[in-house]
Amino acid sequence: GTLEKLLAAGDHRVAAASALEPIYRAEESVTGILRVLEVKASLSLATDERLAALDEATRVAAASQQHRAHALDFAGRGLAEATAADEPLESWIERVLVLSRDGEVKRKAALFAKALGDRAIDNQSLFLLATHAGDAIAGAGDVPAAIAVYRRALAYDPSSADLLSRLDALLRDQGSPNERVQLYAATLEQETNPAQRRQLLHAIGGLSRHELNDKSTAIQAYRAALNDDVEDRDAFAALSELFTEVAAWPNLVALLEEQLRNATGRDAVILRSQIAEVAATSEQPLEAAMHCGAILGDPLVETTDLDVIERVADKIGDVTLLAASLEK
């Protein structure tokens, strides 16, 4: 009829929708109700009225076998409308997720991306939206775009270990160790949790050392980890190996002496043996002799320690030290 023609197009669509709505509802015409709701969602002046129309349209379409395919579109429009109006997003996000079928990953990604746009992520709702957008975009195969979205979200919450893990996985798959190091370094600047800092520093150290061959950055990372926690044995071991690899003998001696300050018993003797050998190698005879003398005076000295002293004495040409070792 005339009203249905007015509902379809022209300047009187809202009036036609108001007139036809009770009729369609009385007839339980799903198609008619959705047409009315479509007009309200498109032309109502108030945000809450548009959102209410999209809310009902989503529910009505989802419950109809004939119109279920349109439910996701209504949900996506509702999400975009709510995002633009700074309205709560959680329920709209959930609907998009629920209504997206397995074969609709690209459609879901497009709806999330459109809702997010290029707006700044400055609250928890947008952070949630960005996280789901990144997931959907990555699932659709556009890894660079997903990485960009995750980075925006991480800028809002640098402490999000879950998001950092997702972004890191994408960068790892792309074979981007340098970008991963930059990501960890940027996150580290904001991180205060000791366990998270340790994880980040070790990740920077490992990537720099093994994949980028950047021993300088690796040393800085493990040095920072050890500064955070003097009992970080993994950082100590990595630093010891790195100083040996680059022949930074004075640095290695200093590192071992740091550990010696807190060592007791056999641990102290073993550290002194290591220091003595390194000092002898790096032409620090007085340092080497001093530690050998301390080992000789330690009641816990063992045969292996005396072997070290003999090697050190021979290397630095200290006959007196050699004699003392043999006498012991």
Unreliable segments of 5+ consecutive residues: none
Q: Compute the separation of the termini in Å.
A: 115 Å
Radius of gyration: 34 Å
The structure class reads: mainly alpha
Report the count of strand segments.
Answer: 0
How much of the polypeptide forms β-strand, as a percent range?
under 5%
Average pLDDT metric: 91
Shape: rod-shaped
Helix coverage percent: over 70%
In DSSP terms (H or I, runs of 4 or more residues), the helix count works out at: 19
Largest sheet report: none
Secondary-structure element pattern, one letter each = HHHHHHHHHHHHHHHHHHH
Question: Brief overview, please?
Answer:
This protein is 78% helix and 0% strand. It has 328 residues and is mostly helical.
Topology diagram in text:
Blueprint: H1 2-8, H2 13-27, H3 30-43, H4 47-62, H5 68-84, H6 90-99, H7 105-116, H8 124-139, H9 143-156, H10 161-173, H11 177-188, H12 194-210, H13 215-228, H14 233-245, H15 249-261, H16 265-281, H17 285-296, H18 303-316, H19 319-327
Notes on the structure:
By secondary structure, the protein is mostly helical. Helices cover 78% and strands 0% of the residues. 35% of the residues are buried.
Spell out the key features of this protein.
rod-shaped; mainly alpha; about 325 residues; about 80% helix; 19 helices
